[in-house]
Amino acid sequence: MIGAPQPRVDGRAKVTGTAKYAYEEPVPSALCAVMVTSTIAAGRVSAIDTSDTRGVPGLVAILTHENAPRVDGDAAGAHTATGQSDRKLKVLQTPDVFYDRQPVALVVADTFEHAIDAAARVRVTYEKAPVAATMESPGAVEYTPQTANQNPPDTTRGDFDAAFSSAPIKLDNLYVTPTEFHNPMEPHAVLAAWSGDRLTMYDASQGVFSRRSSLAKILGIPESNIRVVAKFIGGGFGSKGGINPHHVLAAIAAKVVNRPVKLALTRPQMFGGHGNRPRTEQRIRVAADRSGKLLALAHDSRSQASRYDDFIENTAVISRMLYAVDNQITTHRGVRHDVVTPTYMRAPGESSGSFALESAMDELAYAVSLDPLQLRLLNYADSDPEEKKPWSSKSLRACYDQAAARFGWSRRTPEPRSMHTSDGLLVGYGMATATYPSNRSSASAQATLHGDGTAFVTSGGVDIGTGAYTAFTQVAAEALGMPVERVRFDLGDTTMPPAPQAGGSQLTASVANAVHEAGMDMRKRIAALATADASSPLHGRSFDELGFANGRAFVRAHPSTGEAYVDIVRRSGNGTLTARADVQHDRRQKGPYSSHAFGAHFVEVHVDPDFGTVRLARMVSAFAAGRIVNARTARSQFMGGAVWGVSMALHEEGRIDERTGRYMNANLENYLVPVNADIPSVEIIIVDEHDERVNPLGIKGIGEIGNVGSAAAVANAVYHATGKRVRDLPITPEKLLA
Ligand code: MOS
């Protein structure tokens, strides 16, 4: 059952609209809240005039910094490895404005329409401060962070300077990625309901337990007084991981008005307070001998940072492990200016970092006149060069081989501008490598067998749209030895056994191993009940003799000797049987092996030589990520990530107004993402890989890797087509024609 392309168990609920998202929870008497957000990026609110809201029907309350209850935003420590002040969460506490679209008031009314009408009538006057809008603006300050997303910011090995200066082939280039914004189909939404001093929060969240813990700290109440529920999520991509301003606003507003309050962000507000993927400026220095063998690699990343909190992407970390190179430097610097604190966005670090590294590798291939794929194979890392450990498994060669064969890479002629379509477009073939670390955290699961022959299994992780309900149902069915149709899996509630966030590609590996252990524990309980009872055909048998399948325990040597679970469960005191597993795993703890998923993208683009327009023609991507739990939903995950890389290469860019520090394209009409017509063909190859070392079930995680390397593969194809190297994304016609 594990691995089967099982259709989504929640598919019917989703397509028929019976799946309830946070904003749709039918909580009686819930009011609607709408945020008023700042129209400046630095300064302070000097006055708030609400007189024009008089007469708006159904208006219940307007919260501002002058009347909002006090909360302790610092306490949550959302991103604050350094304990720096987290002003993002100190909502409505002072008149200060630190970033564009910061909430400055909250309007609560009986309907969404009344709330949005009143919000538009709130007149906010500001005292503007001089704004440092970009990393280059006067007033922007570079600093050395204490961590790069929990990695050491700087590393060295060998002697980079000596190796680089004496090398025959050297490249030194700057690669730039723009600020990018998560825009899940479901904007951030929350419904907060108090009952006395107990808070229930229905939330579009990637992790209910971490949300509960942050809320408890900010609101100053015990975790046991908070329940967070997240049943269906319309995408998160990192933006629904950490706690954000709207969570705090909904919780305090519901307290003030003494009614449940729901709050959803508008699409333009999705470019505001929860953060974004930071702009990066990455200098790559790479040196090789004339054959292309790497001698030295330096990856120095500067990235966008806020003035009031620390979040620095691990942009250069991918360069520490992807290729065999002895002499290396990696550094991370933040540049503080007047922007919101950035946050996790799908493959945070690896996504931006792989664009720089894999573009530089492509440039090196041309510099030594070697095929880009051959260059990767020449510098293949047979063990982790940073941790100096063997890989728990690595099937990157198979990914290269299978994807290259399927793509027809051998048809590529090496010279730029050497391939054309029959109607005169330039054709480019490009490739790049993908990798993402295999993470896992502590998780628990509980399974109950009922007298009617069904099982109910729970763990409090969330399904952010990826297929977790389905994957965990499959794992539970296999572990319990039951048909999938008789197993129901529920998730997304802090009343359930704890599970980590759906982030860092870790949820499946974490929860599946806990579900598996709960199933193994259940088998022991089934065996104990049956073998101890003289009326059971299994009486007197040892556990090791037994098999468990199709809702039945049996003697493996004589499969006809056995008993159905329904009959065994009847012997228990209350007619049900419950098993539980609590699997401890410290995500940061390093074992004897280094574990990563790997992959490769191969891309064909067509470029109009007169207009500089780039069209993706096709893409073939192969991934090896240990055991795949569901071949169908996994393919969707990989494909979504690969397509996002195309988007990163050709479409996405948050454009900031240098005079005001405001994002100018804060809506989907101007913030470009690909539509179906932009993505004619994406083929996903899942490479078979068995890894008995990474974790008991051999699952590496697949959520982010599709997004790694895919932008570089497109950029490399554009260079092959045009002979023009664009090192700052996105690749637009004007850059190609410049
Ligand atoms: Mo993912 S950006 O770790 O939610």
List the topology elements.
Elements: H1 11-16, E1 31-37, E2 43-49, E3 59-64, H2 73-76, E4 96-97, E5 103-109, H3 112-121, E6 123-128, E7 141-143, E8 155-157, H4 160-166, E9 169-177, E10 189-195, E11 198-203, H5 208-219, E12 226-229, H6 245-257, E13 261-264, E14 280-288, E15 294-305, H7 318-321, E16 327-336, H8 350-367, H9 372-378, H10 396-407, E17 419-420, E18 426-437, E19 443-449, E20 455-458, H11 468-480, E21 487-490, H12 507-531, E22 546-549, E23 552-555, E24 558-564, H13 565-569, E25 577-583, E26 596-607, E27 614-624, H14 631-650, E28 682-686, H15 710-722, H16 733-737
Parallel strand pairs: 1-13, 11-12, 15-16, 20-21, 27-28
Antiparallel strand pairs: 1-5, 2-4, 2-6, 3-5, 7-16, 8-16, 9-14, 10-11, 10-13, 14-15, 17-18, 18-26, 19-20, 19-25, 22-23, 23-24, 26-27
Helix pairs in contact: 8-9, 8-15, 11-12, 14-15
Return the average pLDDT rounded to an integer. 96
Query: What's the total helix number?
Result: 16
Question: Can you list the strand order of the major beta sheet?
Answer: 3-5-1-13-10-11-12
Q: What is the strand tally?
A: 28
The percent range for strand residues is 15-25%
Low-confidence stretches: 78-83
Q: Estimate the global geometry from the Cα principal axes.
A: globular
Alpha-beta classification? alpha+beta
How far is the N terminus from the C terminus? Answer: 54 Å
Task: Give the cofactors and ligands.
Answer: dioxothiomolybdenum(VI) ion
Q: State the helicity in percent bands.
A: 10-25%
User: So what's the oligomer here?
Assistant: single chain
Radius of gyration from CA coordinates: 27 Å
Biggest β-sheet description: 7 strands, mixed
